[in-house]
Amino acid sequence: MSFVPGNQQRHLRACMVCSIVQVQQRFIREGCPNCETFLGLQNHPESVQECTSQVFEGLITLADPTKSWVARWQRLDGYVPGVYAVKVVGQLSEETVQNIEDAGGRYVPRDGTVHDDDA
Fold first, then answer.
1. Is the pLDDT of residue 3 over 80?
2. Which residues contact 51 (CB under 8 A, 6 or more apart)?
């Protein structure tokens, strides 16, 4: 995530799957850098609204997710470098969760409802 001017911070959203934080227009323009293959957010504003949330807590900046213990703790290892939310509030639709599973992924809610021993 590059610098976000103060007047744009209210447009920040976090992906409910990987928790990366970007401005809404970047999600629409480029999609999610980690989840695009199964979420298809690029050029779909309605999908961006459904699969991202404006309500999130804490920020983690990851320069090298492959070497970071914080990335492993937050289940972010393997994702692109960037800014991630610690907790993302929101629920994905059953259809979206099914699409993730059909693509070979595993959805773990980022809102704190699933604990490490459940995941």
1. no
2. 15, 16, 17, 32, 35, 39, 41, 92, 96
